[in-house]
Structure to design on (576 residues):
């Protein structure tokens, strides 16, 4: 049976538009409209109840002069660097060691299983470990390492680092899975050719295997950047962003200013800054890493 | 909905084992804590883990040091940098230096279990907390409660009071009927069933109290005739209180003398900002 073909360019455009409209409408309603509302709110002194007065760029000037905001920005940077280094590097390492001749395959499940656990449960488990009277300090005391006992969740930067580690424990699973998929897609003949040419050990991995993992690495790094910028649940449940706001990242500051302090305008300004950072980082990263087309 | 007094709950077994009696002066209170500490038990529960819980000891100590100042401070008529606030923080810092408190990241949810197990001897909290203690099987044979003594014998006695309310919106559809229905809520018969259920004190003084711990508290209140003070959490504009509990939380982590003035200056700066906003809006 002959297919009806859309030969005229206009007809084709209308056809394309018809297919695109539902997706565009959905994105507009659930993403662009709320963003526009938030952006507008960031220029007001809206408190969640009363009428919102237009205050121009006041909220943004306040942000610039606020040491707590700068500290929150610093924590966000630490989280980004930490989540880039740890889950990506550990994920790759575990995937390589449990793929093929290294450790046994079941070892990988130890690292993958936490990925199935929610952020809330992760925080509950790590709270039990990290509190001053928690499992870690008790264990250190038990083996006679009292000098290593810390108030893990109470002092900065220890609490930020401890939470990055807790988050890594949960997040490394997805990196392992993706790297394993990538490793299994590396054609064996390239590896054999490398061996024939005298490559071995780390050199073989570095020059033959790793370059072929590039597409997967791009995805894993992208996921990690996105996760680090939006991290909320683990921090909120382990320290509440405290004590005294020292462990807040931008997402937590945004939430606290909006829904705890009821300073919706100020919270919206933080949301806009965070969104700008996310868009800028993603854009630069994807521009750099995605294969160029036509 | 209820009228809670803020009291210090104490574990009667620990008190009996060490031969301690319920303190009527500040010195006895601190002396008891010293004896408890020496026996290897943490005397006082304190945590900043739940966020809001950071104001509890600040409010208790300040109100027992100078109730009039406390009132002025929460009303925005006195400054956090004034002498009584600095002195209260100094007392708190001393108690920390003596190792009397639980670590500041102790989960608030663990408090009833720790109190029951005798891991902590005294817990400052509203009488509404009585419900959870009794639900966990504690009776008046296990614990009691007292209003914290004033810091000096000639300080005016005071007690922090907390109440929950049913609010009727003034622009509601049928305000008169709603108020009438709410009025029925205070009917002693309704209240009796309610307070027996929640194990707290009714806002209606005609309602009898059957729980022995609450009876002891109300008897003490009747004898002391303390000035009722509003709880810190409700007493000032919300943004001010929310911000200040963060500063108090940070102080609990590092309760050094050198930290007192920076903490109070920060709190006062926020008070200046938030009271200005509050007055502009209301």
């Amino acid at each position: 049976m002959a297919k009806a073909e859309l030969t005229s360019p206009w007809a084709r455009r209308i056809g394309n538009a018809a297919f695109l409209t539902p997706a565009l409408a959905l994105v507009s309603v659930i993403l662009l409209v709320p963003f526009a509302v938030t952006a507008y709110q960031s220029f007001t002194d809206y408190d969640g109840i009363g009428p919102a007065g237009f205050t121009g760029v006041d909220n943004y000037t306040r942000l610039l002069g606020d040491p707590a905001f700068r500290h929150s920005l610093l924590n966000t940077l630490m989280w980004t660097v930490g989540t880039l280094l740890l889950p990506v590097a550990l994920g790759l390492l575990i995937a390589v060691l449990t793929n093929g001749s290294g450790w046994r395959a079941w070892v990988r499940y130890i690292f993958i299983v936490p990925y199935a656990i929610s952020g809330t449960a992760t925080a509950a488990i790590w709270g039990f470990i990290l509190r001053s009277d928690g499992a870690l300090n008790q264990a250190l005391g038990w083996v006679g390492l009292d000098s290593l006992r810390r108030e893990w969740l109470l002092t900065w930067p220890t609490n930020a680092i401890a939470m990055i580690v807790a988050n890594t424990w949960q997040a490394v699973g997805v990196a392992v899975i993706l790297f394993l998929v990538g490793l299994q897609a590396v054609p064996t003949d390239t590896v054999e050719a490398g061996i024939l040419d005298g490559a071995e050990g780390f050199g073989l991995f570095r020059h033959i295997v790793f370059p072929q993992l590039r597409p997967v690495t791009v995805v894993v790094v992208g996921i990690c950047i996105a996760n680090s910028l939006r991290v909320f649940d683990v921090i909120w449940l382990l320290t509440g962003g405290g004590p005294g706001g020292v462990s807040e990242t931008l997402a937590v500051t945004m939430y606290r200013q909006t829904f705890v302090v009821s300073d919706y305008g100020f919270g919206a300004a933080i949301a806009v800054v965070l969104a700008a950072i996310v868009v800028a980082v993603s854009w630069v990263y994807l521009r750099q890493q995605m294969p160029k087309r036509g | 909905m209820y009228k809670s007094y803020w009291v210090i709950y104490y574990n009667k077994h620990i008190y009996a084992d060490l031969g301690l009696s319920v303190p009527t002066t500040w010195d006895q209170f601190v002396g008891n804590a010293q004896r408890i500490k020496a026996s290897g038990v943490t005397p006082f529960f304190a945590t900043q883990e739940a966020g809001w819980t950071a104001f509890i000891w600040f409010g208790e100590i300040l109100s027992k040091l100078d109730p009039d100042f406390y009132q002025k401070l929460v009303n925005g008529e006195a400054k956090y940098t004034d002498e009584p606030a600095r002195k209260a923080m100094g007392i708190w810092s001393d108690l920390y230096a003596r190792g009397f408190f639980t670590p500041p990241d102790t989960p608030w949810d663990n408090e009833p279990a720790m109190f029951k197990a005798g891991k902590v001897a005294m817990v400052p909290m509203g009488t509404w907390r009585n419900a959870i203690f009794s639900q966990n099987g504690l009776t008046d044979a296990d614990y009691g409660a007292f209003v914290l003594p004033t810091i000096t014998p000639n300080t005016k006695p005071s007690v922090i009071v907390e109440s929950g309310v049913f609010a009727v919106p003034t622009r509601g559809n049928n305000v008169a009927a709603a108020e009438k229905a709410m009025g029925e809520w205070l009917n002693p018969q309704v209240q009796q069933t309610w307070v027996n259920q929640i194990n707290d004190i009714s806002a209606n003084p005609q309602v009898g109290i059957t729980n022995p711990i609450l009876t002891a508290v109300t008897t003490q209140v009747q004898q002391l005739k303390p000035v009722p003070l509003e709880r810190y959490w409700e007493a000032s504009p919300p943004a001010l209180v929310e911000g200040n509990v963060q500063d108090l939380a940070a102080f609990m982590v590092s309760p050094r003398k050198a930290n007192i003035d920076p903490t109070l200056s920060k709190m006062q700066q926020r008070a200046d900002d938030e009271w200005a906003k509050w007055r502009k809006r209301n």
Summary: Residues 62 and 168 of chain B are 34 Å apart (CA to CA). Chain B is about 50% helix and 10% strand. The mean pLDDT of chain B is 94.
